[in-house]
TrEMBL record:
One of the GO biological process terms: base-excision repair
Claim: Zinc is one of the keywords in the record: yes
Molecular functions per Gene Ontology: DNA-3-methyladenine glycosylase activity; metal ion binding
Domain of life: Bacteria
Organism: Bordetella genomosp. 9
Region (Disordered): 1-21
Keywords on record: Metal-binding, Zinc
Family matches, as InterPro entries: Adenine_glyco, DNA-3mA_glycosylase, DNA_glycosylase
Annotated protein name in UniProt: 3-methyladenine DNA glycosylase
C-alpha cells in the first residue's frame, strides 16, 4: 500500500508518513500545510530547477541568511532582501563598500547580521570569478548526484549528503562563505538538484528532473 493511501478513510497512512491533507485534498509536509505563504512557496517554487546565475545567487544568499533562523522568517523578508541587494545582481553586490554595509545594517526589513552581509558581498565577487568555470548555476548543478532520496516519512529526509559536502568544500575553495554542507543541501533541495518531497506529496516529481517514485 502506498504511504498516502487512505486506509479505511482514517488517514492513518498519511499520519504515518508525516503528510497533511489540505482542504484542497492535496498532500503536503507540515511546514507547508498551514501558512499560506509557505504553502504557495511549496506549491509553486520549492524544488523547481533554477539554472540562471542571478536566481542561484539569490537562493544561495537566502539560504545563507536562513542559517539559524526559520525559513518563514526569510521568506517574509524576501522582497526586502531583493530591494536591499539590488535584486541579487552579483556585479552590483560585489561592488558594495563600507557605506553599503552600514546601509544594510540599518535596514530593518532584512536580517541584520554583519557576518552574513559581508559573506554575501564576498560571495557575489566569488560568483563573478566562477563565470570562468561556466557560472554559479552550472557549477552548483555539476554536483547533482546520480540518484535522489525518496523519503516516505519526515524522519527519512536527510539534512546533508555526500553531494552537499562536496559542493560546500568546492565553494569554500573558491572563496564562498556560509556555505556549509547543511546549507548547501537545503540549496540543492530548493533548486531541484535533488528531490526530497515526501513520496506521496502532490509535488513529488514536479521538477521534471526526477521521477515521482
Amino acid at each position: 500500500m502506498s504511504a498516502v493511501t487512505k486506509a479505511d478513510e482514517t488517514g492513518e497512512e498519511y499520519e504515518n508518513s508525516g503528510l497533511v491533507i489540505g482542504p484542497d485534498g492535496l498532500a503536503r509536509p507540515p511546514w507547508a500545510a498551514v501558512d499560506p505563504l509557505l504553502q504557495q512557496y511549496y506549491d509553486t517554487e520549492w524544488g523547481m530547477p533554477v539554472r540562471d546565475e542571478r536566481g542561484m545567487f539569490e537562493r544561495l544568499t537566502l539560504e545563507c541568511f536562513q542559517s539559524g533562523l526559520s525559513w518563514a522568517t526569510i521568506l517574509r523578508k524576501r522582497e526586502a532582501f531583493r530591494a536591499a541587494f539590488h535584486h541579487f545582481d552579483p556585479e552590483a553586490v560585489a561592488a558594495y563598500g563600507p557605506a553599503d554595509v552600514d546601509r544594510l545594517l540599518a535596514d530593518s526589513g532584512i536580517v541584520r547580521n554583519r557576518a552574513k552581509i559581508l559573506a554575501t558581498i564576498g560571495n557575489a565577487a566569488a560568483t563573478l570569478k566562477l563565470r570562468a568555470e561556466g557560472g554559479l548555476a552550472e557549477f552548483v548543478w555539476s554536483f547533482q548526484p546520480a540518484a535522489t532520496p525518496a523519503p516516505r516519512t519526515l524522519a527519512e529526509i536527510p539534512t546533508t549528503s555526500e553531494a552537499s559536502i562536496a559542493l560546500s568544500k568546492a565553494l569554500r575553495a573558491r572563496g564562498f562563505a556560509f556555505v556549509g554542507p547543511t546549507t548547501m543541501h537545503a540549496l540543492m533541495e530548493a533548486t531541484g538538484i535533488i528531490d526530497t518531497h515526501l513520496v506521496g506529496s502532490h509535488r513529488r516529481g514536479s521538477s521534471g528532473v526526477w521521477p515521482k517514485g
